[in-house]
């Protein structure tokens, strides 16, 4: 594995179906890390852990150059079809009810959506329905699986007993995975985002056998969340809000420090969240002996070592890292633009006179007067640009009280919003528990 690709670190925390988009990306023409044939073989290995038999057979033919498909593959395809048919018969009473939209709406409105209020349906029928939903997911029918797992989750939650609650919990994971994979195709991420937040609340409230087990489940959640955070319109703020929470930052530092790459990029490209930069740099410094890559090295050189040349020298590597990362490849331009702004702002703080030619070399781009003027104005610096001499003279900068107030207000607002959401969600859970009792 190269430092440009985290696939081998990330995939152990993902379901096999969620690994497939990453491998498909690595096999694409825009990525040049591994031989395409090797990626295709890895893709076949992952596919064989699923029940997507038609896809498995197609990829097998490509990998093995149209050689004869083993009889076991076609036999397993037939077995899967028979299992689906049998499960459909077994859970038909429940499916008939769920297909009646008005009945379902009335049951949910009156908080009566439970097995005790559905005639002819018992826990064995629900178990068959859940098995069918899982089989739909395993065969790649993600939209159908999402709808079924949602109903299964609610019905299990209404039941008493540890086994039913465990199945409800597993159904919540399956629902999230299904929504993620369906959203990759549709481009609509709102439902996946809601499921992600709900699952986080369940994990935070759930009683685990040990702290280590809870850490493992939070690690899984963190990796699954990357799909949502890097695709949802508000995801770049969401990842900052969530990953800077002490209990999740602790998981990242102890279990998966490579996730700091994603947190770092989110902070760099999010102009409204610059107030988190100091916290990020502290974490990078703490984890410098555990994990590092060009993105983290860039920030360490700039803000810890104050090495402008070292920071600039990391930008080409950062560009390659992001371009070859499934989650970050769409943000290369934003990252480079904001990184150069960071270099200029840091450079301007300790230099009274700035030579534009020298600045161009440090940034690795042709610096124009207009570009510098915009930066000075946005940063609220006092400075003069001398065009003939190609230099900028910085006036003594007084503390920017306005910016400090804005940053502190944004930080307080974000924390208040998270606290408000947690309180509302807690009220909902307590109300639902009271109704159930």
TrEMBL record:
Matching entries from PROSITE patterns are given as: PCI (PS50250)
Q: Which UniProt keywords apply?
A: Cytoplasm, Initiation factor, Protein biosynthesis
Sections of the chain in a coiled coil: none
Question: The PCI domain covers which part of the protein?
Answer: 228-399
The record's Gene Ontology cellular component field reads: eukaryotic 43S preinitiation complex; eukaryotic 48S preinitiation complex; eukaryotic translation initiation factor 3 complex, eIF3e
Source organism's superkingdom? Eukaryota
Task: Please tell me whether the keyword Magnesium is annotated for this protein.
Answer: no
Subcellular location(s): the record lists:
Cytoplasm
**Could you tell me which InterPro entries the record lists for this protein?**
eIF3e (IPR016650), eIF3e_N (IPR019010), PCI_dom (IPR000717), WH_DNA-bd_sf (IPR036390)
> Which GO annotations describe the biological process of this protein?
formation of cytoplasmic translation initiation complex
GO MF terms here are:
translation initiation factor activity
Biological role? Component of the eukaryotic translation initiation factor 3 (eIF-3) complex, which is involved in protein synthesis of a specialized repertoire of mRNAs and, together with other initiation factors, stimulates binding of mRNA and methionyl-tRNAi to the 40S ribosome. The eIF-3 complex specifically targets and initiates translation of a subset of mRNAs involved in cell proliferation.
Q: Which family does it belong to?
A: Belongs to the eIF-3 subunit E family.
Listed under subunit, the entry gives: Component of the eukaryotic translation initiation factor 3 (eIF-3) complex.
Protein name (Swiss-Prot/TrEMBL): Eukaryotic translation initiation factor 3 subunit E
């Amino acid at each position: 594995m190269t430092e440009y690709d985290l696939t081998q670190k990330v995939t152990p925390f993902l379901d096999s179906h969620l690994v497939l988009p990453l491998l498909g990306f690595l096999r694409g023409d825009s990525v040049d890390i591994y031989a395409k044939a090797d990626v295709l073989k890895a893709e076949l290995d992952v596919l064989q852990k699923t029940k997507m038999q038609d896809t498995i057979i197609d990829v097998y033919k490509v990998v093995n150059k149209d050689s004869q498909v083993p009889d076991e593959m076609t036999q397993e395809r037939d077995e899967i079809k028979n299992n689906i048919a049998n499960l459909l018969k077994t859970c038909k009473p429940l499916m008939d009810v769920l297909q009646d939209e008005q009945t379902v709406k009335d049951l949910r409105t009156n908080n009566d959506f439970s097995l005790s209020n559905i005639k002819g349906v018992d826990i064995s029928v629900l178990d068959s329905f859940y098995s069918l939903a899982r089989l739909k997911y395993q065969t790649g029918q993600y939209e159908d699986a999402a709808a079924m797992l949602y109903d299964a989750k609610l019905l299990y939650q209404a039941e008493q007993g540890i086994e039913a609650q465990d199945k409800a919990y597993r159904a919540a994971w399956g629902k999230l995975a299904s929504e993620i994979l369906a959203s990759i195709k549709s481009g609509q991420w709102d439902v996946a985002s809601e499921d992600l937040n709900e699952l986080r609340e369940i994990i935070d409230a759930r009683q685990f056998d040990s702290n280590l087990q809870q850490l493992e489940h939070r690690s899984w959640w963190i990796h699954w969340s990357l799909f949502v955070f890097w695709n949802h319109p508000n995801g770049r703020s969401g990842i900052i809000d969530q990953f800077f929470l002490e209990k999740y930052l602790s998981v990242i530092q102890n279990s998966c420090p490579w996730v700091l790459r994603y947190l770092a990029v989110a902070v760099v490209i999010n102009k409204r969240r610059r107030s988190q930069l100091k916290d990020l740099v502290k974490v990078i410094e703490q984890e410098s002996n555990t994990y590092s890559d060009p993105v983290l090295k860039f920030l360490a050189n700039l803000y810890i070592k104050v090495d402008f040349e070292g920071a600039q020298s990391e930008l080409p590597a950062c560009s390659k890292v992001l371009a070859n990362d499934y989650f970050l490849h769409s943000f290369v331009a934003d990252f480079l633009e904001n990184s150069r702004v960071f270099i200029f702002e840091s450079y301007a703080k300790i230099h009274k006179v700035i030579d534009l030619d020298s600045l161009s070399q440090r940034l690795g781009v042709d610096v124009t007067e207009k570009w510098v003027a915009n930066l000075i104005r946005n940063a609220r610096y006092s400075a003069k640009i001398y065009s003939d001499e190609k230099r900028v003279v910085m006036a003594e900068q007084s503390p920017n009280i306005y910016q400090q107030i804005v940053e502190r207000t944004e930080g307080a607002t974000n924390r208040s919003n998270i606290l408000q959401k947690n309180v509302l969600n807690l009220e909902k859970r307590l109300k639902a528990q009271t109704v159930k009792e």
